[in-house]
Amino acid sequence: MAWAAYNRLLETQPLLTKALTSMTGFTLGDVLAQNFVDKKEKYDVMRTVRLGSFGLLVHGTTGHYFYGFLDSKLPGTKPVTVASKVLIDQVFWNPCFGIMFFTYLGLAEGKSFADIMKKIKADLKTAVMGSWAVWVPAHTINFAFIPPSQRLLYINSIQIGYNIFLSFLGNKKVDDKKE
pLDDT confidence of 176, banded at 50, 70, 90? Predict the structure, then answer.
């Protein structure tokens, strides 16, 4: 019943549904990161709000358009098509996503442009390379077997675990000495 309702929402309100799905994935990923990875004394509610709002406003919306564009230009599930989609996703989209992620979090925290640039320089490479371990196999499955309308749900279900890494990395302090 819930699955049928979700699919109806994907048909009638795809952008909103995907944005809310991403908000849920990023929120849950940060809750898990704070409770089981960071284990700080005090839970940072605003951190969760920042991550959840990134999912809502950026990840879900840009993912909707990016994967829709990718599927329109490279339809089908032949191995060469799947490999091309994975390559485009990881070589072009992945770094763009990382820049959006660190920029959004920095702006939401009120950081200066210089501080945001330091964060990107310090952690973008780690984020991109860390992504390859998860997303190359995940997107191979995604582009080969998951229907286009379900792609963002599939991504977000894996993203919950990956968001633990992103939440940690996104909230890690930049070492000023490393420049």
Answer: low
